[in-house]
Amino acid sequence: MASPKRAERVLSKAAGCGAVIPDGSLSNEKPKGEPMLTGRELAKLLGVHERTIRDLVDREVIVKAERGKYELAASVRAYCEHLRHVASGRGGESGVSTLTAARARLAREQADAAALKNAALRGEMIAAAEVAAAWRMIMTGVRSRMLAIPSRVRAAIPHMTLSEVDIVEREVVDALKDSANG
Question: Are residues 74 and 25 in the same domain?
């Protein structure tokens, strides 16, 4: 049997959609003439699975009158109100929160895309391919100058032996390899 407080909460939700709650309907007595349905019948009427009915009872959406029986009018009113809340985004359904989060993420992404586009139009951004090409040219020039060091040192210091020039050349090549490997 549904507790009076639980029935009152469910019926107060249903009352928000203009439902008329008869006097004495919140007592422990079953209202006279109130049609009752089994879980299977209510599930068929609402177009959901019986497990959904049990879940809705657990979440206090559907009014359970007694074991295996549900109040038809109150349950349908409460279920309709529940669907309105879910559809408007006020419901506690995980699908609604997921959809809301997805919409927020989409809005952030659109704002970021607009900001990037505006920065590019103002000339504040450079294409990555252009930057890579410029760095490639700079590093090619640095490499050429570094590899020329041993021959320039040999010309500047004529008394250097070939083995000493080879040592300088190996050090320059090692330095270039180290910088290339990070």
Answer: yes
